[in-house]
Design brief:
Oligomer: single chain
Strand content: 15-25%
Number of helices: 13
């Protein structure tokens, strides 16, 4: 851990230690299954929990306030770590040599090896072994040495760079780590070249995995881990520069634990609330450590301070900022340039991706409003979409959007149209003929074709061109709009923004905004015009009959001339 300013580093260390203690105590309380493990859903969770329990039980940093016996905790942690390590495929003649299974049901010993666990877990094992080898029993240390040798010889990382995604980030980091660890100069040189190429491509083409959680954190973890092993000065410089680039990108879309704008991929714990926040918690520390930690991984161990300019940007938002980024991505349609927009204030953020892209498992969240992370798993995101492939009709997993959406992003306003073609409407799938919206829990007033809400310090006006129904969910409400020609307009303002307009309550806001209804039209194409409250700009979005989409601000067509990588 690079120490720059003592008082800041103490704050970082305090937050990292809080994660270690919290996860260790969860591990101590978690009953073992008959297999001798805690979890069968993902082998890595056993490794992470056992790592934290071992650290808390052996490292003097965590002596105070522990709620368990240190010797018993160490014994339990070593037991689970050994069980995990022994699940590795150690036969060099087998095709998955050096790998671990992912899902362990029904019997871990018979579970088939999977390509994913070793990608991240392998490098973290090398780090953990080096950091805590002296505290390990001889038996556990020998198991680690054996497992790492099989990882090295198995060579999962011996792959070329092609699309520069999180998998390849982890391959590159592993080349650097295992090349250094085993004195493999050829492998280390390959890692150096891949690292330099990754840094160059990131600067020239942008981050193709925009808002990609949890995979963005895999970039951070992989290269922070590689930095712990780096001995070559040039490798250190490249790793530091790459991490600076990544943290600067993160800061641009940061709002007290929330990730503003479009997400190329997201898991259920990424929507409708940002829950994968541990690296943000350590780096920025401007929200409470949540009790629920769906991705513990190694946020309590691996850390490098972000550049001062990035931290200042994230933590000192005095004025709203527009983030207009171009990026290049390998898609089903080829190598495409995409355009990402975000408007970030100190109270809320809005934004998304202008183009529709089909991401892996159809996980794209194309646009959203975000407020700071909230307590107790309450939703902190607001967005609408037409359900697509993979959508759960129950509404309990509000992801998986169809291609059918036109958008306009302008500061604190998002407009979206859903003119659904015949192929999007299936009689045997009721959700095919509906648009759904996620509304974070708060105080809401429901009108015939509008919804007005107050969520913490933010007021929302949501206008629809048709009726809707509200379905209460855990942490949010689902608004369901039936029809094949739906339009949605959302404007967000903070209470601070509108005090000068005499607005002091949600009732005041609803009364004012009820007179600012957008104009929807559905003749020769679906169109909407809206003049925003805060900036008083006339916004127009149209999906014309011939299929073309048009968007304008005060009569001027929106272009991407100001968008940069």
């Amino acid at each position: 851990m690079k120490k720059r300013k003592g008082e800041k580093m103490n704050a970082y260390t305090t937050r990292m230690n809080a994660i270690v203690r919290s996860v260790a105590e969860k591990a101590w309380r978690e009953p073992l299954l008959t297999s001798g493990l805690w979890f069968h859903g993902d082998v890595r969770n056993n490794f992470y929990y056992a790592s934290y329990l071992f650290a808390a039980s052996t490292d003097p940093l965590y002596e105070e306030e522990l709620l368990f016996d240190r010797q018993e905790a160490k014994r339990l942690a070593e037991h689970v770590l050994v069980r995990v390590l022994r699940l590795q495929q150690r036969d060099p003649d087998r095709p998955m040599y050096g790998h671990w299974p992912l899902n362990l049901d029904p019997v871990p010993e018979t579970a088939a090896p999977h390509e994913l666990p070793v990608e991240l877990m392998g490098s973290l094992m090398a780090y953990f072994h080096r950091k805590y080898e002296r505290q390990m029993s001889g038996h556990l240390a020998a198991e680690f040495e054996s497992a790492l040798g099989h990882v090295y010889r198995g060579g999962f990382y011996r792959k070329p760079l092609t699309v520069r995604n999180h998998h390849e980030a982890k391959y590159t980091a592993a080349k650097l780590i295992f090349g250094q660890l085993y004195g493999d100069e050829e492998l280390l040189e390959d890692g150096k070249n891949c690292l330099a190429s990754t840094l160059e491509r990131l600067r020239k083409e942008g981050m193709a995995e925009y808002g990609c959680l949890p995979w963005f954190w895999h970039w951070i973890q992989a290269f922070t881990c590689a930095l712990e092993f780096a001995a070559d000065p040039q490798v250190k410089r490249d790793l530091e520069e790459l991490l600076d680039e990544l943290w600067t990108l993160r800061a641009s879309y940061y709002l007290k634990g929330a990730w503003a704008g479009a997400h190329s991929r997201g898991w259920p714990h990424d929507a409708p609330s940002d829950a994968n926040v541990l690296h943000d918690y350590v780096q920025f520390g401007d929200f409470e450590l949540p009790a629920d930690m769906p991705r513990t991984e190694y946020a309590g161990f691996l850390f490098r301070e972000a550049p001062e300019r990035a931290r200042s940007l994230a933590l000192n938002r005095t004025e709203p900022a527009e983030v207009s980024r171009a990026l290049w991505k390998v898609t089903d349609e080829g190598f495409r340039q995409l355009h990402s927009y975000a408007y970030v204030t100190k109270h809320y953020a809005a934004g998304g991706l202008w183009e529709r892209v089909r991401e892996f498992d159809n996980e794209q969240l194309r646009w959203m409003f975000s407020i700071p992370v909230r307590r107790g798993g309450q939703g902190n995101q607001l967005y609408f979409f037409h359900p697509g492939e993979g959508y759960d009709p129950s509404g309990r997993d509000p992801r998986h959007q169809s291609p059918w959406m036109e958008v306009l992003y302008r500061k604190n306003v998002v407009i979206s149209l859903y003119p659904l073609p015949a192929e999007a409407i299936e009689q045997d799938a009721p959700e095919g003929n509906e648009v759904v919206g996620v509304l974070p829990e708060g105080e809401w007033i429901y009108e015939a074709e509008a919804l007005f809400g107050k969520v913490d310090e933010v007021l929302f006006a949501v206008y629809l061109n048709g009726s809707y129904e509200i379905r209460p969910m855990s942490g949010y409400n689902l608004a369901v709009c039936r029809g094949s020609r739906i339009g949605v307009v959302v404007e967000a303002v903070s209470l601070e923004d509108v005090k000068t307009k005499g607005i002091n309550s949600l009732t005041d806001f609803a009364a004012l905004m009820a007179g600012r209804t957008p104009v929807f039209a559905d003749e020769g194409g679906l169109t909407v015009e809206y003049t925003g409250l805060l900036h008083e700009e006339n916004l127009r979005l149209a999906k014309l009959a011939e299929g073309k989409a048009e968007s304008s601000v005060n009569g001027t067509e929106i272009t991407f001339q100001q968008y940069t990588v």
